[in-house]
């Protein structure tokens, strides 16, 4: 268990459902998810393709609106918030790392990492961004653009950007999916080091059991439901 883990929940999902429309009619993506995550915990989310793993991260981040149920994250019930409030909530409390980096190609590594701080009106954005890039081993690549960086370096920039605001919750969606084994291992080691340093709650979606096993808890999804859990409690 992380030394930062607290018994206080930082995230609670209660009967969360997500239904999306399609040409063939409504499709149920999440079918009643109950999950409680303590502050500072690490949760690996596993399951086959189409089981709802990415959708689970999307509703926690407020990027998809739940069809039913309640989500409380970082002390805020986000289920009923409007788009502007959700954007502020993400800015203040959530970090997200995607499989495909999502860096701004016309911005340098330093500018990419400073971006969320500038959005939030934070002081010393570039100083803090430089420190975070130093922390991920890219202090020598500040002025480089994403197209000048390897895949592993781009993901390090994405990690620095996700952690620079000191988020309470970090959502990582297959963060090594586009990388070779050795580079991916380095990214995962870095992800857990940053989690330890900041005490950030980490929710890691992965298809790799060995990555999930590094988390203090593993939640298994199938067909939009939690069908198994190892470690922790209260998983519904």
Structure write-up:
The protein has 236 residues and is α/β, with parallel strands linked by helices. It has a single domain (9-230), classed as P-loop containing nucleotide triphosphate hydrolases (Rossmann fold), CATH 3.40.50.300. Helices cover 32% and strands 27% of the residues. It contains seven helices and ten strands. It has helices at residues 53-60, 83-93, 109-119, 125-135, 151-163, 181-198, 209-212, and strands at residues 9-20, 27-38, 42-46, 68-73, 76-77, 94-97, 169-173, 201-205, 217-222, 225-230. The strands form two sheets. It has a six-stranded mixed beta sheet with strand order 6-7-8-3-9-10, with helices on both faces. It has a four-stranded antiparallel beta sheet with strand order 2-1-4-5, covered by helices on one side. α3 (109-119) crosses α4 (125-135). The longest helix has 18 residues, at 181-198. The two termini are 21 Å apart.
Question: In a nutshell, what does this entry contain?
Answer:
With 236 residues, the protein is an alpha/beta fold.
CATH architecture: 3-Layer(aba) Sandwich
Strand order of the largest sheet: 6-7-8-3-9-10
Strand fraction equals 25-35%
Our measurement of the CA-to-CA distance between the termini, rounded to an integer number of angstroms, reads 21 Å
Please work out how many helical segments DSSP would assign: 7
- What sequence of helices (H) and strands (E) makes up the elements? EEEHEEHEHHHEHEHEE
Classified by CATH, the class is Alpha Beta
Strand runs, count: 10
Mean pLDDT reading: 91
